[in-house]
């Protein structure tokens, strides 16, 4: 039996109630029911309403279930960009969205910040021809974040009909977005929702829907089965186009119920308290230091530290105490560690990790 606690930045430790829900799902044979049945429609509706409650999502937003956040990058470009998108890039995930747009033949422009840094938003000018502005709330590869007050400045910088997209894959539900200031937010469930991977959630407003329809009417291809109009048609009947990941939609609905019972404000304040504890340790540590210099741009949910000992050695020693942190990303694999601080990680678990790190490495 594996009794390790995973502080890896996704997949990560499962939300504590998942094993019980998984057990019920097996007893109720959720894996065998038809995705056209009334039972599935109820499962779908529960997940959707749970999410609307947790995020306080306005009515003009739709909730769509797809395969992954990676899929959403591709669908976003196909459905919402006729010619040109503009991307803020400061790490591997934001870069990948930019590359996806180029691979789909769009004109792409980017504003780049060095790996491990946030953006100087005041100095960014958005091209008036950009139809989609890609922001990244939490760059999981580097641990740099974009606070909501910075995200909210883009509506005024962009053309009136430009769509503002926010990658919140490794932070939601922590950031309290002003949904009127953005047009689409997306995430996948194996990060902060503490579920097995294989489900992406795409929130879009009526402006994204209208743009997809007008592209379609003008004769532009907006893809095949996962076009926004096709997703909406099925979503209105609490269904999906294809046979979906029913088990994960079920588990999401259950975990959302648990999270709503706890309350999003409690989740957010716990996240901040645990992050403070981790950063305070990193600041005084002899071997680790926060990788993101500006405290305002330090992620609260994926905390990255420079390390004078290799991440492999850190994890080798932590393994004896049933804990694992993430290695650095890409070329920082050994020189950095990444610590997930997700809603599943209890204050007690974080406390134990920090004191063990301090005991082992100083
Ligand atoms: C993990 C991650 C993705 C990709 O998510 P998938 O579910 O693997 O497609 C995208 N953006 C960010 C910031 C991520 O952390």
From TrEMBL:
Enzyme Commission code(s) on record: 2.6.1.52
GO biological process assignments: glycine biosynthetic process, by transamination of glyoxylate; L-serine biosynthetic process; pyridoxine biosynthetic process
GO MF annotations in UniProt: alanine-glyoxylate transaminase activity; L-serine-pyruvate transaminase activity; O-phospho-L-serine:2-oxoglutarate aminotransferase activity
Pfam families: Aminotran_5
Protein's pathway: Amino-acid biosynthesis; L-serine biosynthesis; L-serine from 3-phospho-D-glycerate: step 2/3
Catalytic activity: O-phospho-L-serine + 2-oxoglutarate = 3-phosphooxypyruvate + L-glutamate; 4-(phosphooxy)-L-threonine + 2-oxoglutarate = (R)-3-hydroxy-2-oxo-4-phosphooxybutanoate + L-glutamate
InterPro entries: Aminotrans_V_dom (IPR000192), Pser_aminoTfrase (IPR022278), PyrdxlP-dep_Trfase (IPR015424), PyrdxlP-dep_Trfase_major (IPR015421), PyrdxlP-dep_Trfase_small (IPR015422)
Record's keyword terms, sorted: Amino-acid biosynthesis, Aminotransferase, Cytoplasm, Pyridoxal phosphate, Pyridoxine biosynthesis, Serine biosynthesis, Transferase
Domain Aminotransferase class V: 32-328
Cofactor(s) it depends on: pyridoxal 5'-phosphate
Family in the record: Belongs to the class-V pyridoxal-phosphate-dependent aminotransferase family. SerC subfamily.
Name of the protein described by the UniProt record: phosphoserine transaminase
Native organism taxonomy: Bacteria, Pseudomonadati, Bacteroidota, Cytophagia, Cytophagales
């Amino acid at each position: 039996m594996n009794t390790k606690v995973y502080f890896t930045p996704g997949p990560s430790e499962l939300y504590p109630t998942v094993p019980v829900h998984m057990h019920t799902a097996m007893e109720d044979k959720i894996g065998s029911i038809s995705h056209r049945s009334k039972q599935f429609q109820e499962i779908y509706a529960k997940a959707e309403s749970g999410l609307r409650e947790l995020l306080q999502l306005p009515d003009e937003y739709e909730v769509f279930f797809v395969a992954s956040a990676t899929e959403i990058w591709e669908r976003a470009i196909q459905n919402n960009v006729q010619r040109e998108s503009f991307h803020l890039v400061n790490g591997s995930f934001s870069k990948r969205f930019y590359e996806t747009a180029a691979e789909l033949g769009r004109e792409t422009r980017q504003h780049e910040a060095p790996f491990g840094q946030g953006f100087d938003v005041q100095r960014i000018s958005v091209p008036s021809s950009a139809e989609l502005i890609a922001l990244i709330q939490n760059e999981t590869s580097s641990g740099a974040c974009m606070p909501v007050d910075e995200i909210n400045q883009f509506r005024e910088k962009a053309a009136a009909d430009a769509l503002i997209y926010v990658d919140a894959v490794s932070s939601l539900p922590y950031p309290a977005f002003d949904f009127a200031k953005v047009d689409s937010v997306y995430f996948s469930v194996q990060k902060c929702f503490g579920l097995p991977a294989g489900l992406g959630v795409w929130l879009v407003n009526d402006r994204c829907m209208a743009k997809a329809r007008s592209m379609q009417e003008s004769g532009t291809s907006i893809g095949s089965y996962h076009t926004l109009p096709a997703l909406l048609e099925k979503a209105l009947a609490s269904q999906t186009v294809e046979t979906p990941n029913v088990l994960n939609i079920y588990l999401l609905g259950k975990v959302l119920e648990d999270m709503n019972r706890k309350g999003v404000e409690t989740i957010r304040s716990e996240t901040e308290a645990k992050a403070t504890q981790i950063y305070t340790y990193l600041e005084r540590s002899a071997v680790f230091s926060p990788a993101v210099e500006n405290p305002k741009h330090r992620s609260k949910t994926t905390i990255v530290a420079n390390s004078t000992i290799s991440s492999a050695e850190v994890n080798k020693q932590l393994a004896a105490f049933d804990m694992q942190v993430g290695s650095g990303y890409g070329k920082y694999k050994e020189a950095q560690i990444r610590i997930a601080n997700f809603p599943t990680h209890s204050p007690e678990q974080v406390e134990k990790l920090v004191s063990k790190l301090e005991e082992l490495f100083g």
